[in-house]
Design goal:
With 150 residues, the protein is mainly α. It is built from 5 helices and 2 strands. The N and C termini lie far apart (51 Å). 15% of the residues are buried.
Amino acid sequence: MGTRDISYKRNEHLWSLAEKFHATMNDSQQQYGVKGLCGFAQLPDKGRKSTTELGQRIRHLYVDQLHFITTRYTNQNLVYLRSSPYSRALHSLQQVFVGLYPPDKRSVASERPKIHTVHPAQETIMPNESFCAQLIELMKAYCELPSDVR
C-alpha cells in the first residue's frame, strides 16, 4: 500500500467523522461519556460545532443572500479547498464544508471534495517560522525589543 493509498483512506475516515458529527453534534459525549473530550491536537466538539456553524453562515451569505455560489454541491471542481496539513486544520475545513454543503445539499452524497495541502516547508497560509530563515530572524529581533515598543 503506497502513501497515496494511506492518505486517501485517512481522508475518507476524516470525512466520515465530519459527517457523523454533523448528524449528532455530540459524538464524543456518546463515545466517551464526557462532553467535549478529544485527543491531542484534535478539534473538540465545541470547535466542530463552531466551524460547522461558520460554514452555515457562509452558506447563508454566499448562497442564500448574494447567490454567489451554487445551492448544491455537484462535483469536486465546484470548490477549491486549501488547508495546512495539520489534523486540526483539516478537521476545521471539513466541518466548514459540511456546514456549507450538508449531505442533503450534495448531488452525490459519497463524493467528497479534495482538500489541497502542501509540505510544511512550502506552507504559505500561516507564518512559517519552522522553515523560513528570514522570518526566524525577524521574530528573534522582535522578541529582543523592549515590551513598551512592541
